[in-house]
Structures are given as C-alpha cells and as structure tokens.
User: Fold Dephospho-CoA kinase from Stigmatella ashevillensis.
Amino acid sequence: MRIYGLTGGIASGKSTVSTLLRELGAHVLDADAIAREVVEPGTPGLAEVAARFPGVLGPDGRLDRAKLGARVFGDPSERAALNALLHPRIREAFLEKTQALAAQGMERIIYDAPLLIENGLHVGLEGVVLVWVPRALQKERLKARDHLEDGAAEARLAAQLPLDDKRPHATWIVDNSGNREATRAQVKEVWSALLARG
Assistant:
C-alpha cells in the first residue's frame, strides 16, 4: 500500500481538495475525523482531555471544541499539552485503519492531516500534496469563514507552520487561490500523477 499525505493550513482549502480527490476515486483518511473519534464520549481520550482541561465538556458530556480551542490557540504550552494527549491516540487509530484497508487490498490512500509536516508525519510517505494560498488570502478567508477579528485570526495562523515553509516538503502543490474549476484541474493532474506511480 502507498500512503500519500495531503496538507495545507487553516482556511487554505484543504477540505475542498480532499473532496475533489474523493470524487476522482481516492480513498482519504481524515486526521480531523480520527481526532474526533478518539474523544467521543466514553473514550479514554476524552477522559484525559477533560482531566487536563477542566470545563471543556458540554452539558451532553461531549467535548466543547470552541471552549477547548479558546484555551489552546492562544497558548503554545496548552496546545502542546493537548497534542501530547491526542497525537499518540490519533496515530494508533490511523495505523489500525490503514492495516484494515491494506487487508482489503487497497492500493493507495491519502492521509489528510493539517499538521502533517509540523508533526513529522510526512517522513516516509510516498509523497505530499500541499494546498497553498498566499498568506493574505488565507487570513481573509479565515476571518470571513470563522467570523474572527484580526488578532484571533493571527493567533490561529501562528499555531501552524506557514504554508510557504511547507512548500519544500511538498511533492505536488495545488494553488487554491483561484476558482474551484482551476483547483479541480490541478487536483486531476495530481491524481493522475499518483496513479502513474503504480
């Protein structure tokens, strides 16, 4: 099985590219979806997060992501503490899923992970697709999407490696600063290149 990485940054359009790849027939494993699974009610992951970050559970016993985000986005040490709790669980779940897919005969999968490069997960993959936009556009999209003030948008951008710093690690770059059709054309080229690798 060949595993390729898909990454980008907040509000860069990675979800759009992931959707386009799925439409072309790619099997995509989403790190964010796995991250949600490992903190479902009743999981050890949720118990650990609730113990380390009191007050982040909603009345229904589920993780209140907005409260947790407010705690960790502005504080690198708190973010590091959360990552230390969750990343090993996410990695373990990812390995279980890839092993199951390999057993089913899946030839290639794409691992969609926003912090792929920050966490060193790109090392050893067959290649990395980076969704890129200019930083100014990324910030404007983030502010519009999440209804954020300038400072809050900056804090979220600062929590990730800048897209320009991710470029040297990318095998393919999808420039998502244009319209959806321009992005779709680039994604088709990338998918063709992946298929050509066997």
